[in-house]
Write a structure and sequence with these properties.
The protein has 14 helices and 12 strands. With 349 residues, the protein is of the alpha/beta class. It folds into 3 domains: 14-57, lambda repressor-like DNA-binding domains (434 Repressor (Amino-terminal Domain), Orthogonal Bundle); 68-172 and 311-335, 3-Layer(aba) Sandwich (Rossmann fold), CATH 3.40.50; 175-308, Rossmann fold, CATH 3.40.50.2300. Helix 1 crosses helix 2 (25-32). Mean pLDDT is 91; it is low at 1-6.
Length: 349
């Protein structure tokens, strides 16, 4: 990761306005709520302070005054891989930073099962003001998100999108661009290789992020490096054991395999298959997400490069976006843009 620190927004408070205007908190409160007892000149000074500070009355603060915090829930994958485990840890850190303005719960669901995810969304308790979910592209999931939005529960998608739904915002990288980046790096790393097959393993193409990376990768390989044959994608559900079996089958069927692109997680299984066949440094392997495992594989020259997204930034961004949506505040697009990072063994943080 890039070591970005917590960057949750600092909103101007009523106390800030009172201090800026040189009045008491009670006077500022009376003026901004239209109550009597404030001189015109004082009211003008307070309004000028509001303009300078960009202060807006915070609906969440009103909830707190009535002993009611905002309630958010993050739907994250069950049996999480290292990236999702990291994301969950950052969500828990963010929950501590936001309390008591907003309370964040975490629920787990099998996101590879559209029915399970849809049921979790369909049965979402009304106590939640907003939901952040890793999404899957499926009609029932889309309908469940739309139903939540219709009842006033705000939804953001996280890591994997459902863009045809009524979700408010997507928090994650540009996945077609990430796939194109993988294709460009694959072609460059293969350099002078005349030709050869390239294997592709994904978690599931039902996940939009995996499908879009696959599309971007194929797009670059077909147009810029047509001498290589990209083999049909194999789905391992990010499970190391399944990925080990897929990688072993690829290596057995294609002794001339020159490249391997893992779109999702489960890298431990792929590494085991490469080592068992003595091909660990002979196949150009491109993976996603910097973790303890992919870092070690980079340092050992087993993985050529890792394409990363910052889990901490995503957790904080999702919380910021939900908070902004609930409070009527604007979103800063530059702050919420999730970057695509490329790591080699030479630039590991």
């Amino acid at each position: 990761m890039n070591g970005e620190g917590p960057d949750l927004p600092r909103r101007a408070t009523l106390e800030d306005v009172a201090r800026e205007a040189g009045v008491s908190l009670a006077t500022a409160d009376r003026a901004l709520n239209g109550r009597p007892g404030v001189r015109a000149v004082t009211r003008a000074r307070i309004e000028a302070a509001v303009t300078r500070l960009g202060y807006r009355a915070h609906p969440a603060a009103a909830l707190l005054a009535r002993n009611r915090s905002l309630r958010f829930v993050f739907l994250l994958p069950a049996n999480a891989n290292s990236f999702m485990a990291s994301l969950e840890a950052y969500v828990r850190d963010t929950a501590v930073a936001l309390a008591p303005e907003a309370l964040i719960d975490i629920r787990h669901v099998d996101v590879f099962d559209p029915s399970a995810l849809a049921i979790a969304l369909e049965t979402m308790p009304a106590q939640y003001d907003a939901v952040a979910t890793v999404a899957v592209e499926h009609p029932r999931v889309r309908a469940a998100i739309d139903d939540l939005a219709a009842r006033g529960t705000h939804v953001v998608t996280l890591v994997s999108d459902a863009p045809t739904s009524q979700r408010f915002h997507y928090v994650g990288i540009d996945n077609p661009a990430a796939g194109r980046t993988a294709g460009s790096l694959m072609g460059r790393f293969l350099g002078g290789a005349a030709e050869g097959p390239i294997g592709v393993i994904a978690g599931s193409l039902a996940l939009r992020d995996h499908a879009e990376r696959h599309f971007g990768f194929n797009q670059v390989m077909a147009t810029e490096y047509p001498r290589f044959t990209v083999l049909p994608v194999l789905e391992g559900h990010d499970d190391p054991a399944r990925n080990r079996a897929h990688a072993a089958a690829l290596l057995a069927a294609h002794p001339d395999l020159v490249g391997l692109y893992n779109i999702g997680a489960g890298n431990e299984g792929i590494a085991a298959a490469l080592k068992e066949t003595g091909r660990a440094q002979k196949v150009v392997w491109i993976a996603h997400e910097l973790s303890a495992e992919t870092r070690r594989l980079l340092l050992c020259d087993v993985i050529a490069t890792v394409i990363d997204q910052n889990a901490g930034h995503e957790a904080r961004s999702a919380a910021r976006v939900l908070l902004a949506r609930c409070s009527g505040a604007p979103i800063n697009p530059d702050q919420e843009r999730i970057r695509i990072d490329i790591f080699l063994r030479d630039n590991l943080p």
